[in-house]
Design goal:
The complex is a heterodimer of chains A (116) and B (110). Chain A has no helices and eleven strands. Chain A has 116 residues and is an all-beta fold. Chain B has no helices and nine strands. The N and C termini of chain B lie far apart (36 Å). The chains are: A mainly beta (116), B mainly beta (110).
Chain lengths: 116, 110
């Protein structure tokens, strides 16, 4: 199947700093990428939908000014957590699809963010 | 909100078939049934999906009832590496958003 990578796999930062997480589709062009967040022992929660060349669509309750998403190319989307706080500590996972509606989503391995 | 109901946990002996049920009684005509699994601290892995007909691939089989209100994922010969949380998701054909529920935690034991 298609491969999606994330970088970094783990990051620890101080409260108040910003952290950028990259999501790459390695062997296909991703017209759409999604960002999810998962707290311990909970399910994945969709944060936003990212389409190449356009503004991301955020789910209700997700602050777009805090979680900046950029999808500048067909193989790269970035999530920047601005002014991170300990409550932002979580497992962030991206996914990507290559085609149109009904295509399979492929997920990255996730990024573990710890804010001290 | 997730539109599926799954048992929170199941056990299966290694080498036996694992049958994971999912109820999606409010599924719409244009919604697919997707199955993903998540091994601890990893991203979800796609398993299989279907609309009406039963589907089979190298990983699993998907059995969808005729009224499409429920489905069963079958892992024919479970191994210890199949221990994971299994998510059943229904998604409209034209949006591709996946809303994850709580899933079923499958424990395969020796």
């Amino acid at each position: 199947g298609a491969v999606v990578s994330q970088h970094p796999s783990r990051v620890i930062c101080k409260s108040g700093t910003s952290v950028k997480i990259e999501c790459r589709s390695l062997d296909f062009q991703a017209t759409t990428m999604f960002w999810y967040r998962q707290f311990p022992k909970q399910s994945l929660m969709l944060m936003a939908t990212s389409n190449e060349g356009s503004k991301a669509t955020y789910e209700q309750g997700v602050e777009k000014d805090k979680f900046l998403i950029n999808h500048a190319s067909l193989t790269l989307s970035t999530l920047t957590v601005t002014s991170a706080h300990p409550e932002d500590s979580s497992f962030y996972i991206c996914s990507a699809i290559s085609g149109g509606a009904g295509d399979t989503q492929y997920f990255g391995p996730g990024t573990r963010l710890t804010v001290l | 909100d997730a539109k599926t109901t799954q048992p929170p946990s199941m056990d299966c002996a290694e080498g036996r078939a694992a049958n994971l049920p999912c109820n999606h009684s409010t599924i719409s005509g244009n919604e697919y049934v997707y199955w993903y699994r998540q091994i601890h601290s990893q991203g979800p892995q796609y398993i299989i999906h279907g609309l009406k007909n039963n589907e089979t691939n190298e990983m699993a089989s998907l059995i969808i009832t005729e009224d499409r209100k429920s489905s069963t994922l079958i892992l024919p010969h479970a191994t210890l590496r199949d221990t994971a949380v299994y998510y059943c998701i229904v998604s409209p054909y034209n949006t591709d958003k996946l809303i994850f529920g709580t899933g079923t935690r499958l424990q395969v034991f020796p």
